[in-house]
Amino acid sequence: MPRCGGAPVAQRVDVVMTTALPALTDYTTARDQLLAHSVRCASEPCPLAQAAGRILALDIRSPMALPSFDHAAMDGYALCARNALAAGSEHRVQGSQAAGDVAVESTGAAWEIMTGAQLPDGLDAVVAVERTELLETLADGSPARIRLSDPLVAGQNVRYAGTDVEQGAVVLRAGIRIGPAQVMLLAALGIASVEVVRRPRAAIICTGKELQADASMALQSGRIHGSNGPYLVAALDAIGVLVLSCETVDDTAVTYAAALQRAVDAGAELVISTGAVSMGRYDFVPDSLRRLGAEILFHRVAMRPGKPLLAAALPQGPLLLALPGTPMAVAAGLRFFVTPVVRAMSGQEREPLSHAVLDTPQRPTPGLRHFLRASFRQDESGSVHASVLKLQQPFRIQPFADADGWVVLPENAGDCAAGSMVRIASLHTHASSAFLSARPIATHEEVSP
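Below the sequence we write its predicted structure tokens.
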């Protein structure tokens, strides 16, 4: 089982390339193996002002009732209506109560009152100011006597203590991501600090001598701008991961092992590498990891894109996912492997399934799970429809930037006609399609089981 930090990775890097293809692992088995090796991060205190986006580590019980006192729901007059008051009845006004004023005691007369003000003791109803007639004022212009335009009963226009939140009630459950709405609730309850799950720490290693990491420099012949690294940094940050480093190394086992050691020394709990994971002459990662003493959990998954994906547990160190270097293999690996691991490390539940009506017929390759970039729309009845984008080659980035999310076809999907119900997922966990957030299917399964 991986642990935070850990012992150094062995430095032996001599590599003998193997040629036999490992057997394909089905997606569900591969994902579950990863989750079995994922260790939840410890909790830490976090000031409320910095808590947005963090994962709550413990249930929160309300330390107080909300509202904390009975108060007026609108501007008007507070009265005692224990016995219903008739329309046309006249009432002397004893004083005025504004929001923030301390509690006062009424002699039974009416009190002018403002929205949010605490009801004077003994009063139990509020009449809106526009439903009264002012009969008499004092020298300073404040009301002295009023007449009711309508009948008034106890409880009318009163917000009672505890009607929003009862003292001691569980208001937030562990595992939720704290957003602005949760911050508002916690602030209203006077909670200044919360226990959150420490952000998982990750390191990124991009392999390939063709990669040029510095985008400000003119491209040299035969080289390409590195896009996987910036993508992974942005995507990991969006799902709450603390990215410790993002390195680009050449196609040698020595530089890869050195980068891996730096990741371990920095305290990474998760290492994500791209490239050099297939079976070509420069695909040194699988044998390098074996020589370094890593436990290979699986290599090659029955999926498209991203079939050569590899996962390993380093000795006394982090969990490692080695993704193929093609951009969409990286994107699918991040969404459907890295994201479930991060959720497990953060103490979150698995994502629920969402479904859509398929508008574009598909003939997926049997035995492979397909992750297809798609656009979504909502029809007049509220049903979500998915259209698989035409250009699905894994090197293409533009369709990914244009997509709303993914259509997920399981290994046994068979031919999918237009009108079929298919599984869908957001482009990233927090990217968002309003359709996905608005119409999830109620289930405890993961987004792509």
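Residues 1-18, 437-449 have pLDDT under 50 and may be disordered.
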